[in-house]
Every structure is written in C-alpha cells, then in structure tokens.
Amino acid sequence: MEIGDGPAAVSMDENAFPVLTEDQVRCVSDYGSTESLEGGRVLYSRGATDFDCFLVLDGVIDVYQEGRPGDSPADRTVAVLAERQFTGELSLLHRNKSLVQAVTRDDCTVVRLRAAQLRTLMANEPELAQLVLRAFMQRRLRYLRMGLGTVLLAGPPDSGDMLRIRGFLNRIDYPVRQLDPAEDEAVDMLRDYDVRADARWPIVICRPGSYMQNPTISEVAECLGLRERLDDLGTVDVAVVGAGPSGLAAAVYAASEGLSTVVVEGMAPGGQAGTSSMIENYLGFPLGISGHDLATRAQVQAVKFGARIALPYTVEELHCDRTPYVLRMSDGEELSARTVIVATGAHYRRLDLPELPRFEGNGIHYAATALEGSCCQDEEVFVVGGANSAGQAAVFLSQVAAHVRMLVRGPALSRSMSRYLSTRIEASAKISVHTRSEVIELRGSGHLQSVRWRDDSTGESLDTPSTNAFLMLGAVPNTAWLTGCLETDDKGFIRVGGDVADTSAYPDGSRPTGLESSIPGVFAVGDVRSGSVKRVASSVGEGSVVVAAVHQALERG
To bridge 41 with a disulfide, which of 104, 169, 259, 453 should be the other Cys (CB 3.0-4.6 Å)? Predict the structure, then answer.
C-alpha cells in the first residue's frame, strides 16, 4: 500500500500501519478526547519521552526521521498517516524517547489518547490491543532497519567495554552502529563529531554535539531516555526485582490482575535465559525461540497490562524491617512496595584463577549470543561446563567457530542436560567433549591468547591457542544485596514455604505460603529460590502462580 502522492509517497506495511474500521474508531474515541489541530502542528518531536497517541479522523499526519541539512520533507518522511490510522510505536508504551517526529500536514481532527488512556484501552479491548501491539512492534522493526535513532559506538572491536555496551544495546533492541577507530572512515566520522585524539574508548554518541567516554550502562540509558523514573510512583502493590523469565511472568500476571506493578532490572530484560541462543523445549514453540525473543515478547506483554519496567536500576538493599517495604537503588533512589517478589536469579560461578579478572570481557565470556559469536569466527573456542546452558552455547558456537572444546569436570555431561542437546553434541564433528577436565591457567597479554587445561584422568596438561572461552559453571544466587534480610540455605538461595525455619516474623503462629520467604509479603521465584529447577518453563510457572499468594499477602495487610 502507498499513501501520499508525488515524491513524499511512502510504502506502508498494512500490519504496521493498519486502517481501523468505523466500529474500531468509535471504540477508540470512547477512551480519548476529540481535538481539532491546525496544520504544521508538531505533535511530538524526536527524543520526546512524554507524548501521546493520535488517531486521525480527518486530515494527514506526516511522520519524519531526523534529517541532514538541506533534506526536504520528502527525504525525511517515514510514514504518512491518513484517516483512521494512528501514531505511535513501542517507545510510547515503554516511556522511552521517540525515534521519530509527528507533524500535522494540514488542519486535522484527531482522537488524542494519553499513554494511560491507551493502556486502559488495551487492557479492556483485546482485539484492539492485539492490533495496536502488532502495529507498534512492526513499526519498531521498520525503524530499526532504517537505522532511526542509531547510537554510534566507537572503539577497538575486541574491547571488553565495547562488548559490555554493545551487549546492552543489542539486548534492548536499540539500533547501534559500531566504528573501529583504526579505520579511515571511522577517523573521518569521529573528527566530524569533534572526538579528541586522547579520548578514552569506547566512545558513545547518542545525540549531536556531545559524546561520552567509556560510560556506564546507566549513563548510556540516561542519554537515550530509557531510564524509568521512580520518584512519581508512590507505593506500589508489587515490586519485582529482576526481569528474567520468572520476574517478567510475575509482572504479566500481577499487572493483568489490576495490581500496580514495577519491575526493577539492573541490565536488560531476559536475565540469564535472555542470553540463550535457542530454547527448543519450551512449550508452544516447536521450532524453538531465542531467550532474547522470549524476553522481548514478555516485556511487551507486561507493559501492555500496565506494568512499568525500570532499567537499568541496581537494587542495593531491601529494608524489610518495616512495611511498606523499601528498595534502595545504587544511585540512592528508593521504591516503596506493599509486596516484593525476588526474581534475581543466579550467575555462573567464576574460576578460582588469579588471572581471571584480567580476561573477563577480554576473551572470557559468561554468555554466548550472536555478539560474542561474532568474535569467534573460524577460531577454536572453549566452553567450560556440562549443563544445559553450556550445551546450548556449544551447539550455537559450533555454527561459527572452527571447533568447540567442552571441558566437563565430571565423568560425563551433566545428567541435568536435556537429551536433545547431549545427542546433538555427540553427533557434531565440530564439538569435542573432554570429561574429567578443567582449566588451570589463562594466558595472554591484554586479551586471552591461550587456555591451559588438564585432563585429570591422565594427568596430562595441554596449552591450546584460543582467544575466547565461555564459562558456564554452576549457579551462584544473586542475593548479596539482601544483606541477611531473608533466610537462605547454605549456598545462599532463598528458602520459602515449608523450608523456612524461622517464622517469627509471622503473626499468630502462621507460616509462609508456598513461595513466601521468612518475611511476610516477600516472595522468591525462579533460580534464586532454594530447591528450584533450573529451567525456563519452571521459572515462568513460579512467576505466574506467585501472584495468587501476593493477593493473599495484600489482603492480610
């Protein structure tokens, strides 16, 4: 479909830019306000974070990208919206900066929907919610392909800090262009941005006229308008700490049942599962789904029901000695909540090698996504570990690396590894499994250059050239921030329900419900829970069912 005329005509995808029926227009009108706007009115600018959705009743709205000096409106046009079409994309729901600008071409009559009104409509009208979400998601994909709002990231390609920032941007699906300062084209472009020769790499440019030198993830998010404000929330019904599968599931079900819900995440949605290249045994996805795609869909679903996703915020402390509970962030901000769901998951155990910190981010990785895979083209790489995550990493990396060596301390691949993975590993000529083997030294200057490892069954030690090794060794719970607030087992995982020994915080001899911790109204779900099954499906299940117990805790007051 093409809308408009002459040079400004724009090819339009009907899924991304649908035309509503008359009945749908009437339904939308019930949730918003009808307004008459003059021609040339800027409805919202690129970079705006507080903007509305507009349904055109009469007239035309032009949607523009940021242009270069001398560009005509036709050069900048990305969409032309006419009668019964609407503005907006995922930035509106996520309260992020808009990637585009919307301007009335002539006098228009529109239905204006504030963000809260749009969420109410989506909660009450499932058919329209599906249409709007599909359109917003398709538009985001379209804008990403066009490179709208692209961040420039410049630095040595194999730098650990480059991988850190690029990984964050990739996981939130933000468009990024990577520049190698050693290349002539990059030198010329960086000179245009007045980047000094003595700048600290990596350089991040997210707005004209300024750049950041080796910024933190929080600084990047702030520059892009991604940080959710917490100071206007008051006290919420549910605070979910962690946006992995269990945390996102809890957010979806809590928000869909009318509870005010905030998810606090220190990095990006998906947690450890978000780095899985392919999950093939998750119910309902016979062709498999990547952890990234699963997390992205879950995040959109949670936001659709009104949950707020606050990232990147690191929770440093839970004040559990009073109610409502207070979560204190690393930047000093606080969030007050009547109930708390701890879904912080676990991280991989680190090797006990003195040289390890030097190589973390410089050849040592704890995730195997396409980003890390791009560093392994036609090289020999190591995967250390024998459970599902290690198996998924090995299978994925075998598609790009020359060879993958799996080092497993036990006599065989872990009994907890899914059979489909172990079968695929055994059948692959590009994967070799070394049992009863371990890393004894990492070598290199600056970046990893070789791995020294020992076969404990023979006592033989080998030094194998390799610039990338992936460590996926067991689970260590992310509970240090709780500072003894909740009862844990001897490994630091949170005890819940009948496993809780100290129930003194509960009144009148009552006990915690199934997923409730030693503190009433504070719950633990997913990998952070003592005795949990380390599977995505079980984490999603726990995040879903815990909401029933949350309702009980709220009723108790």
Answer: 104
